[in-house]
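Appendix B, Record 12. Input sequence as logged:
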Amino acid sequence: MNSTTDPFDTTYKINSAAPVRDSFPIAFTKNFIAVLVWLILSYISGCVVVTFFRNQTFYEDPRYILFIHMIINDAVQLTVTIMLHVLSYIFYKINVSFCCVFILLAVFTTRSTPLNLAGMAIERYIAVCHPLRHSQICTVRRTYVLIVLIWVVCITPDITELFVTLATEPNSFFHSAVFCLRQNVFKDPSLTYKRQAFDILYFLFVFLTLVYTYLRVLFAAKALSADKLGAKRARKTILLHGAQLLMCLLSYINPSIEIVLLMIFPGHILAIRYSTFLIVYILPRFLSPIIYGVRDEKFRRYLSRYIICGQCRVPAVKEH
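Logged structural output:
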């Protein structure tokens, strides 16, 4: 079937000269919901960040440093995603150069989250299985080195897409306007295979890390006569990280999900794309504050002073 007439070809729907678009009331409602969710999450994330930086006790704990790094990373990712969503309704097409910046920021921050989850799982594994060496292995300095390595791993493979595009596309392309999707900007066919290969290796590494740390903590919990409660909490935390990883994985298979859903519900591409947008890109951002901001007793004790009592300007509470 010719791709330009295939009703299941989502690329055609996006790029056609007469694109299918929502009516103004529907578009307004969708964007209102998206922005409202962003404001709620931004408030929660802001209180979490304020809680961290106003209480020095968290500065010296690698666990909370990795946590706040993920919160800030997710906040940036969500902001970029919402901006792209709103701009796609207001302007439909935007300048390619600006689109490149938005796309790369979204890709980098999306890739960072699973690696951060792997780092947090390893920290919990060391805390439970090697408690006497935890303070020596998991130092503040090494935690910041790990964060730098995470960003190097996230940026290096995908920045090559920009270099390839700069080398293969004429200058006029970067002054033109496109519907801001990754495949519309970084169009070289070889990049698709590179993405697929890297994504497989990337998620396989994180998945195996989470499985390994969970099993080791599970076995350690059975052997421990003391801190069984701590081991149990560590297992639950790693399981939640696994759930976050699976939700992050959805962002990489989202195009395939949309095609399958469009085959089941033909003619509803706008509703399908909006639904997957909420589930794939927004819903996972609720989990990070819940895992540590709510489940963690120490952080919850401080956070409650900010998010519940609205005391974001009160002096930091000192530990006794």
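Confidence is low (pLDDT under 50) at residues 1-18, 312-320.
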